[in-house]
Amino acid sequence: MVQMPAMNAVVEVLRSEGVDTAFGCPGAAILPLYKALEQVGGIEHLTVRHEEGATHMADAWARTTGRVGVAIGTSGPAGTNMITGLYTALADSIPIVCITGQAVSTRLHQEAFQAVDIVEIARPVTKWAVQLKEAAQAPWLFREAFRIAREGRPGPVLIDIPVDIAQESIEYDAAIDAPLPVFPVEPHPPRVERALDLLLTAERPLILAGGGVVIAEAAAELREVAEYLDVPVQTTLMGKGAFDEDSPLFAGMTGVQTSQRYGNASFLESDLVLAVGARFGDRHTGRLDVYRGDRSFIHVDIEPTQIGKVFEPDLGVVSDARLFLRALADAARRRGARREAGAWVRRVGELKTALGRREDFDAVPIKAPRVYKEINEVFDADTYFVTAIGLYQIWGGQHQKAYKPRHYQVCGQAGPLGWEIPAAIGVKKALKDTEPDAEVVGIVGDYGFQYMVEELAVAAQYDVPFVLIMINNEYLGLIRQAEIPFDMNYQVDIHYDEVGTDNVKIMEAYGCSGRRVTEPGEIREALEWARKQAQATSRPALVEVMIEREANTPHGPAIDAVKEFEAAPDPVA
Length: 573
Prior knowledge:
Rossmann fold
């Protein structure tokens, strides 16, 4: 057997698990791992400016590649800085492994410098949090970490490594080692048959595709089922990109925030919903009595405890999304069973035509929907988008189109501010070998932009080009006075201070570029400039679009009570 430093064995495991990029910030307690990264090679490392940024980069890298992302930090506050990123990954079912250094193991009980119990802190926001106790465990602990991160509902794992353990040597031969197997969760055949029965007898069925469809690489199977059975498809916010939004079978999005008018209308007319890899989040469902109505529900999820968590479905199926959809298609073909095509799909098409929202505004100040109109027309289906939390996430869900899985990345459940800049870096590095020239676009707000703006330095240092589009309603210059009831059916009174921030100068301070837009006719030219500028400089380029200050989004307490803030056509009869 080969004798080597324990951390060299860890790096060998990382490489064999498909890790070619890691994101982190060195410090004394984690230096043995950094030495191993240098000695073994094969993994590019980006030094971040804040450990939370490392977790978001690893998160977005994982969302794009489908593999397990890796973030590294040292002891004490480095680990606690990672907690938001771990929570974000857990909430959105993203597989990452966070590695933290730790004080000497014999002094952990003595309140040694930076000897925080990061395992206990991280436990609620991880699938597994563990401390390495013996050096000989290192390769096997990491193998198990990757298995846990990937298997079932994916999610984050944290491994804490005391510095004295990290400095030991062990016997390990990478040539005879391999990743642990991940066992698929297959659907129970009688439940597949029952689901098919329900679909065939329904008059107005919908398929609701959640983030689990994207995670399971099930877009092709989803399209096959929808087309064979002639069933319209909706997506959740996390499912955007799982189904081509230009397809005649696309029926929009339902929700009290990120939704289309025709999506809510189609949902309200449906009599059966087949939800695959969706968890019925509150921003999707709104009031449950309205959402459930008289329609039936089939809930398919890889995580058994998700079924019945929000409400009891008529049929629950525990399964990987792709395996379920494949089994459903096979069962339909074996029976020779098809739905009668026509009336329901035509009705969804009528609603889609009649119940749009305006985007062609020429007003000054610019209205946000106009920005998304330009984005949809300038960037093609191969563009990778990242966006985070705020009004612009809602506008994005309502107006921006997505065509392919893993091309629309959004931190949907946790909603951490500042996610976009590190996420854009993670996406771009994920594509370095497969699509090095792919365009990456981050859509940000003026407040979130400055929350993690320091990570622009990482993009500048490592020549990571992408476009940033800022939807700026000058949030930093306003004071909100609001009373927000639980049902989210609220009004907001806004009072403004005349305070502005020169975001273009901030970009330039980090060695990047920026341009401000104040009129709708300037948007397209500025976007084209940013695309060329990012490519020419190999650094981020910002288009800051100044929109109306008193901007708001359509929202409401229930999917039949969404208030429209702009004039829209009346519903069809």
